[in-house]
Specification:
The complex is a heterodimer of chains A (713) and B (327). Helices cover 27% and strands 26% of the residues of chain A. Chain A has 713 residues and is an alpha+beta fold. Chain A folds into 3 domains: 146 residues, 2-Layer Sandwich (Aldehyde Oxidoreductase, domain 4); 78 residues, Aldehyde Oxidoreductase, domain 4 (2-Layer Sandwich); 300 residues, Aldehyde Oxidoreductase, domain 4 (2-Layer Sandwich), CATH 3.30.365.10. In chain A, helix 15 packs across helix 16. The chains are: A alpha+beta (713), B alpha+beta (327). Chains A and B meet through helix 3 and helix 17 of A and helix 8 and helix 12 of B.
Amino acid sequence: MPSCKYDWPAAGQRKHIGKRISRIDGPDKSSGRAKYTYDVNRPGILFAKVVGSPYAHAKVTSIDTSEAEKLPGVKVHIVQGVGTEIHWAGSEILLVAAPAEEVARDAAQRVKIDFEVLPHLVHEEDLSKVGDRGKPTAEQKTGDAAAAFSDPDAVIHEGYYGSAIIAHCCMEPHGQVVEWTPDGNLRAWESTQNVSGMPKEYADALGIPVTNVRVMTPHMGGGFGSKFGADRWGSECAKFSKAVGKPIKMMLERDLELVMAGARPPHYAKVKVAAKKDGTVTAWESDSWSTGGPTGGGIPPLPYALNDIPNVTKRHTAVATNIGPIRAWRAPNHPQAAVLTLCALDDLAAKLNMDPMDFFQKNAGLGGERADMYRQELTKAAELSDWKKLWHPRGTKIAGNVERGLGLSLHTWGGRGHNSRGTVTINPDGSVEVAAGSQDLGTGTRTVIALTAAETLGLEIKDIKVSIGDSALLPSGASGGSTTVGGVSSMTRRGAIDAREQLFAAVAPSLGVPPDQLEAVDGKIQVKGSAAKSVSWKQACAKLGMNSIKAEGKNPGPCELISSGVGGVQVADVSVDIETGLVKINKMVAVQDCGLVLDLKTAESQCYGALIMGISYALHEEKIMDNATGRMLNPNMEFYKLAGIGDIGELVVHMMTGPGYDERGVIGLGEPPVISPGAAISNAVANAIGVRIPTIPITPAKVLAALEKGGVA
Amino acid sequence: MEAFEYARPTSKEEAVKLLAGTWGETEVLAGGTDLLSLMKDYASNPKRLVSLSGIAALKGISSQPDGDLRIGATATLQELIASPIVAKQYPALVEAAHGVRSPQIQSLGTVGGDLLQRPRCWYYRGGHGLLAQHDGKSLVPDGENQYHAILGNSGPAYFVNPSSFAPILIALGAKVRVHGPSGAREVELSKFFRTPSSESEREYDLKPNEILTEILVPAPGGAKMAVYEVREKEALDWPLAAAAVVLNTSGKTVKSARVVMGHVAPIPWPSPEAEAALAGKTISESVADEAGKAAVAKATPLSKNAYKVQLARVATKRAILAAAGGA
């Protein structure tokens, strides 16, 4: 392989890369010094609240804000005025604002809005009841599934599977503080995954030049795919602020956050799969349906992960509902598609009397490019879960009320680094700054930028100042699709290598060697391999005189530092109380690759967080919609159930690293490990009790209902 | 929440004078873990809050000369957990307090507040009123009733009583003392809870200008006791069903039993059927199971909560077994 100017250091030469490095903003976050949008206050600020529609489908017929405006300092801004058709409960009719947040809340209660109520649909699971709201899409065909199913030697399984609608439930809700400067510039502190792209969002909505908008996100508390846009509430807040001439803060409260700021679409399917008697999967047929809210929504990628099944026929129906809009949710559509696919295949394995570990090893080739990684990861996951010892044929009755079971799932994702630009500055005093218009959603973006620069410049991580979260800086892509780490690390690496080269040029004469004979190691610039012939970093930088080095880093750029395509295998080990239907997680094993791991600790953290999120959606989470009123019944942390520390069991994470992985370069990781928990846990429960719970979340009610029809009880 | 007046009296008499004669005008504030969330949701909009935090007479946990345990209405769950007398004589009360899986609520929440907290019904909390009426009928029977009542649910109330302590306190024969304009009165806790039939009624035998002052629990006299809750989560979560059991035994034989279920009906639900199934028996898995079956024999589940019948049965069975296995 030809060497390239920009590359990653070889395995033996990494000081920081691949080590367990604590995130550099951890102390700021744990001490409260880190400032989030919520913490931003401006002189004269007003606090705004949303008055939403109480109806899921209605037309606004009148608005009376007179009682609200009697409260001190209350201002009103209409978002959807008289005559507007409303498509979901909670949809913003108007905003009220007041100098005190509690007054704004009281004012919102005093607004009177009349509606003409229209028929709504908020449930999509029973396709027979959706009427003309369901729109079938064209059938897609590969090979000849009908012929494969009619093979007399084929072993066929048919089943129904699905996953309910859930929310993103970001720790920090959506929202922004907006402020206009006297010269007509808008400044917005925004909880966003898209700092550099956000000015255009505001500019387009407000009809002002993009140059007049600056967006800042110093820290944020999670987005999971739900925070790419300014959103209607953001741009309307900016209009409101301009109209009243005061800065406005509007963060969604938890109820609205759950109602309208993010939903993962539900996906359901009737699936038919066939295999030869030796377990080789031959055919897939599915009729799937889902909703994306008012617009119908997207199609799940089926069959998932093992998508080289030779004979495939699939049909999909999109159902328009009044549940509110959906948004990308951490690996959009993949967790749902994993349930539809991996649970159906697990049931097929059970019908074949095969150990799923053997069955999926046998069929790993259907994973195309990922096949070898799946095989290695299945082997590792089997080892870490003690699969050979603990797995038993489905539904083997154990004495007592508690049945234990193991299940597995696998997944894939792209994760190629996005476009990113930034500057690496080396100052004559020795200080170093990397600056880019990126954002750290809580994933560790700051930390990987710092460690990449430190690695390249032979410094400690604490020596690097990282400035991100400001649209005034050079633009980076939105943090979606697990693209950030690849983008910012390769940008930083290229910029730091160029900056280092300039520093070598300044230092070389004093060391009496050409610049290309120098290296930056352990806080020194030295002649390669010769620590005796060196100057300290500070001495080296002093040679810059008055001039800082400012190098721009870019991704993409010359030489490939990143790639795309990861795999992962997860095993769930569960216990099911067959008298109560309660499922307890004993252990979750996640085996994951993502190319070259920059920071092992934050990489593992992504997997731990994904497992916890996955356990939550597998066992507890669902937006409960009321048929009669069309409203969400559980927009709170009381009945929108999230797993707590006692609910998650033991989590084991193993990152695949070393030869075969490292040379692929950096690949994103945020999304893939959240894909498999639903299918793995569902498969483990089926293994424990001998009967499939068709949909997640797997609640006691569903377990008991299934056990009444069969299984071990 | 709407603006309100805040009063912090230092005596029961003063507190009662500060309370209005109609519900909704004023509210009594103890730990605030329920009331403040109701106010933030505009489900309760009192004009005055009367705090009990300044009334020394409502605090504390102590043994009375007659052997009763006196729990002050504003004693916190944490005080109950930490009380040596309670731990020794009423272990099931400690278990019940641990069922509230939030250290914050254990620290602030009071025993009186636990008994008087309002239902967690999501229609009620969502602004549809205590009886969840919409266009003249309840939203519950055809709605999302997975957490609603399976007993005592002929309407118009379908919510479940949310108290963690009421079932075990009733099983122990506790009384509550109430203070009102004409002085104090005592009520058997088993008769304290009631199913409201209109929006203007509350779920307990208390007038708007009365306060709960203390809970009196008879000496257990060697009775065996336990509670069992079925919760979906280990983290803070409402039980799907719960049961409290007190067994008076002679050797291995049950002389008499008290069985009270929680989270199954608009009131804590005593089960004379389960009690009868235990009397004169030696506790075994099958005896406990029969009693569990008897406890739910008359259950009338709604469209989405048949599973709770099984959970209530299992909770009862397991509480019986736990009580029998206990000291």
